[in-house]
């Protein structure tokens, strides 16, 4: 039973990522940053949709670290984008 739930989670995440890559490729806007952000959103959605009601298995507790690393990566992307938008005279470099 736990293996089935784990496989369902992995299949859901892989399906989300493949669909994301396909849609971005069809729209002509496939980039690493956009794919990463949309995959992180998919990870959060699949994690919530497949969450057990009563007991949390050990492998799901380790997802916290993967999500935390993903959110740090998202923060880096946001900061880089903000720095690209700001005019050069605003930054004291």
Description:
By secondary structure, the protein is mainly α. It is built from 4 helices and no strands. The N and C termini lie far apart (56 Å). The chain crosses the membrane at residues 9-28, 34-51, 63-83. It holds the Pfam family DUF8044. Keywords: Membrane, Transmembrane, Transmembrane helix.
Provide the descriptors you would attach to this structure in a database record.
mainly alpha; 4 helices; flat; 93 residues
What's this model, at a glance?
With 93 residues, the chain is an all-alpha fold.
Cα separation of the termini? 56 Å
**Whole-angstrom Rg:** 17 Å
The H/E string reads HHHH
Number of H- or I-type helical stretches: 4
Would you tell me the structural class of the helices and strands? mainly alpha
Residues in β-strands, percent: under 5%
Tally of discrete structural domains: 1
Biggest sheet, in brief?
A: none
In one word, what is the shape? flat
Calculate the mean pLDDT score and round it. 89
Helix content: over 70%
Number of strands: 0
Q: Which spans of ≥5 residues are poorly predicted at pLDDT below 50?
A: none
Secondary structure layout:
Layout: H1 2-27, H2 32-49, H3 58-61, H4 63-85
